[in-house]
Amino acid sequence: MGSTGEFGRRDLIKRAAALGLIAVPSMGVLSACASGGGSDDNKVDKGTKSEKNPLAVNESAPLDVVIFDGGFGQQYAKDAEAEYKAAHPKAEVKHAATQEIQTQLQPRFNGGTPPDLIDNSGAKQMDMGTLVGKKQLTDLNALLDAPSIDDPSKKVRDTLRPGVVEMGRFEGQETWILYYAYTVYGVWYSKTALEKLDAQYPETWDDMLAVCEKAKKKGIAGWTYPGKFPYYLPFSLYPFIAKIGGREVIDRIDNLEPNAWKDPAVKAAFEAYYELYKKGYILRGTPGLTHIESQTAWNQGKALFIPNGSWVENESKKTTPADFKMAVGAPSSLDAKRDKMPFGTIWASGGEPFIVPKNAKNPQGGMELLRIMLGKKSSQNFIKQVSSLTSLNGGTEGLTLPPGLSSSQEALAKAGENVVNPRIQDWYVALQKEKIGVAALGEMMAGRMTPDETIAKIQKFADGVRADDSIKKYRHK
């Protein structure tokens, strides 16, 4: 399963990349659906390649699309499918949406009849590393080298935000995943709530504790988080670790290096977060909350801060007050003089991963739909519908951005080159979500483990993955 990852990390990290919904797949999903290989016998014939049809799409072949029906909904995909249908009126487009990606699609992978395009996201996404390792995906370089919808003189790859193409690679030059959304992770808050406390977003950890204490006296919690899905905590915790100790600490964690979790920066960050629990700054009942329940409590003003990604603006819009003034903050400085990275350091990375299965009947059609989605029309439609950026570089001209998305833009501008992109959630999904998140961080923030016990447990988990020859390994170059 290889030992090196493709990433030219330094080039990627210097620039902003962007979001995705998180996932907790069962590692068994792809042991069954990953037989590798596959033939072209079941594929539709290619169409005639032309200026208007650069990917040689079969004009009359059916197109089978499955979309994750989560924080971004599915209407944006339906609208892009309508564009595809207009261009290929003889083609039947089959659209399905589900929150059970793994459960619904595993039998189809097993049977050799996967869809042509999949939005592989959500709590039950398929493990990307395993899909790649078992050769179940189509290389998307044909899409990336095709002319863009808006400017045929530019290749699709040249219209994307920095880092997006690299994120879709694992080793070699093949691009297996196209991350469509571009999202910022961090500490989300309401400017209105802070204004009512006569407070500003805390740029230091001491200020964070002071704001939480001030809120506590008013009967308001400092923090909440999805206690049932505590793998949200790293959205603010990982860039906090990088800020304290430098991005190389996160690289070593991603690389599964021995004792990477025992770095002093990890201990300092864990102890700071644990202090939120010890001082009673966590909303009572948080360990039992889902992501929706914690976001609703936050919208209701029961807590000031929540670790999240920028999909939260759309996902929580039904419960967000009109005057909420949603915003995202970078991790506070633990010690501004000693921290290795400046205030403003933030995590932004590609998310909402789209894949074209290797055994898809109409892979050209799947890639063509992605090409349409990466045009300015579909991109702006997505931005307006779901309050999130896409991987198209720019595309916001003429749009009035909602508060959270506007704040995300400002946060990225402030971060500049200080954007980090931990890959552990892409490379080792079960380790990140089920073990580090649920079995360790969730226990620590509920007060059932100390930071030292949590670090030891996580290190043991990471060591176990490193020693497991059945798991494909990746490394930063």
Summarize the structure.
The chain is of the alpha/beta class. The protein is built from 20 helices and ten strands. β1, α3 (about 75-85) and β2 (about 95-100) form a beta-alpha-beta unit.
Any idea what the shape is? globular
Strand content: 5-15%
The biggest sheet amounts to: 10 strands, mixed
Q: Tell me the Rg in angstroms.
A: 22 Å
Whole-Å distance between the termini? 17 Å
Q: What is the number of strand segments?
A: 10
Multimerization status: single chain
Q: Mean of residue pLDDT?
A: 90
Instruction: State the helical fraction.
Output: 25-40%
Unreliable sequence segments: 1-38
Number of helices: 20
**Helix and strand pattern:** HHEHEHEHHHEHHEHHHHEHEEHHEHEHHH
Structural class by helix and strand composition: alpha/beta
Main location: other
Family: Belongs to the bacterial solute-binding protein 1 family.
Keywords: Signal, Transport
Protein name: N-acetylglucosamine/diacetylchitobiose ABC transporter substrate-binding protein
Secondary-structure topology with pairs:
Elements: H1 9-13, H2 29-33, E1 63-68, H3 75-87, E2 93-98, H4 101-110, E3 117-119, H5 128-133, H6 141-144, H7 164-167, E4 178-190, H8 191-196, H9 205-217, E5 221-223, H10 234-245, H11 247-254, H12 264-278, H13 291-299, E6 303-309, H14 312-315, E7 326-329, E8 346-355, H15 363-373, H16 376-386, E9 389-390, H17 403-415, E10 419-420, H18 424-427, H19 429-445, H20 451-467
Parallel strand pairs: 1-2, 1-3, 5-6, 8-10
Antiparallel strand pairs: 3-8, 4-6, 4-7, 4-8, 4-9
Helix pairs in contact: 3-15, 3-16, 10-11, 10-12, 19-20
